[in-house]
Amino acid sequence: MLLRYAILLCCLLASAASLAKKFEGLALTPPMGWNSWNTFACDINENLIKEIADTMVKNGMQTAGYEYINIDDCWHGERDAQGNIQVDKTRFPSGMKALANYVHSKGLKLGLYSDAGWQTCGGHPGSRGYEFQDAKQYASWGIDYLKYDWCNTEGLKAEGAYLTMREAIHQAGRPMVFSLCEWGDNKPWEWAQDIGHLWRTTGDIYPCFDCEYNHGTWSSWGVLKILDMQKGLRKYAGPGHWNDPDMMEVGNGMNQAEDRSHFAMWAMLAAPLIAGNDLRSMSAETLAILNNQEVITVDQDPLGIQGFIYADNFQDTSLQIWFKPLQKGDWAMAILNRGDKASPFTFDWKNEKVIDDLSQRVAEFSQQVYQIKNLWSGQELADSQTMLQQQIDAHDTLILRLSPKR
């Protein structure tokens, strides 16, 4: 009898241990890559994905840190007689495993999209009731990343639905980054740390600087709107578990200053850097933004601490100042011009003191001298013993790295 109870207890503990795990060691810094939806929506096929992978290698994005090629909605065919999900053979005639092999041959990784409901947002077969079968199929194809949406989920509880797919991925045995896309409706930051590697904090992004695009029953949001929705969330982010303010719209119609602000502020948020433009035809200016290694380094800082607002309407202007603690005592500083006109910016370091209660980091400029670097230009500015004076163009962001002088 005692032996039976001992065996039962071991089984229960093993089951609990299984349910308590996600694949660790993934997304220790915010994931970087590309997603098909923002530009192509359902107009996707295997040749497009191959061309994007080829371009990412050729244009330096891979070297800069981008590694995931993520296929969003509409890759799906129907299920076979056994219930196994198939690809759309017209769009992906070679099959998903062959495409994954191609992407892997470039030193990149392949991501897929599914949905916790009966159907995806685009009306294709969702994973509800097929979670373990689908995860096994994705693993057999060599998939490295799963974005899991929240359409057509009537009657489901978000935490339970995502926990089921997390367990399905774990049982399938192939490590995959698990991206929860339930739009922040159920506050995933409060429960998803042990389930996924990143979770959406808002509804969908829209390629404008400060707008709401009303679809009737839901809205898409511009860059500033989404930025403002991140208030109070920074304590939930860190290595292996990130707040996700959605894919980027850099190169999708905003002006260059707005694209710079978008990219800089996503870096300050320690957000995933998932490009959403057509990499094959983007301008040199767009590529320079996406490949700016200094700004990427801010995003990818191994401490994984999300930035915070230091001052709003600084000195009665449209300027907003952010700070982000970095490794080795460094700080990132971003000065965002939310207004429609250029604004002068003057910062007298000796009169300022930055205190971050979350990280317990302090920058007391009257006591410590910092070297200042403009991350857009690469220019070394005067150190913090000299007052900083700059002009910030409308909708633009100056992003700096502050390094303590030893």
What tags apply to this protein structure?
alpha/beta, TIM Barrel, single chain
What does this structure look like?
This protein is an alpha/beta fold. The chain has 2 domains: 21-299, Aldolase class I (TIM Barrel), CATH 3.20.20; 308-404, Golgi alpha-mannosidase II (Immunoglobulin-like), CATH 2.60.40. The protein is built from 11 helices and 22 strands. It has helices at 2-19, 37-40, 46-58, 61-64, 96-105, 131-141, 158-172, 223-228, 256-268, 284-290, 293-299; strands at residues 32-35, 68-70, 76-79, 85-87, 109-115, 145-149, 177-180, 198-200, 212-214, 219-221, 242-244, 273-275, 308-311, 319-325, 331-337, 343-347, 353-356, 361-364, 370-374, 380-381, 388-392, 397-404. The strands form 6 sheets. The chain has an 8-stranded parallel beta sheet with strand order 11-8-7-6-5-2-1-12. A 6-stranded antiparallel beta sheet has the order 13-14-15-22-19-20. It starts with a helix and ends with a strand.
